[in-house]
Amino acid sequence: MSNSTDAGTDAFGSLPTRPGKIIAIHLSYASRADQRGRRPDAPSYFLKPSSSLAASGDEIERPAGTELLAFEGEIALVIGTAAKRVARSDAWDHVAWVTASNDFGLYDLRANDKGSNVRSKGGDGFTPIGPALIDARAVDPGALRVRTWVDGELAQDDTTAGLLFPLAQIVADLSQHFTLEPGDVILTGTPAGSSVVEPGSVVEVEVDAPDLGVTSGRLRTTVTQGAASFDAALGSLPAVDDTQRAEAWGSRKAAGLPTVEASATGDPASAGRSAADAPVPAGSPVLSAQLRAKLEGVPVAALSAQLRKRGLNNVTIDGVTPMHPGTRIVGTAKTLRFVPAREDLFASHGGGYNAQKRAFDEVAEGEILVIEARGETGSGTLGDILALRAKTRGAAGIITDGGVRDYDAVAAIGIPVYSAGAHPAVLGRKHVPWDVDVTIGCGGTTIQPGDILVGDSDGVLVIPPAVAEEVADAALEQEEQDAWIAEQVAAGHPVDGLFPPDAEWKARYDAWRSR
Question: Confidence band (pLDDT; 50, 70, 90) for 8?
Answer without folding.
Answer: very low
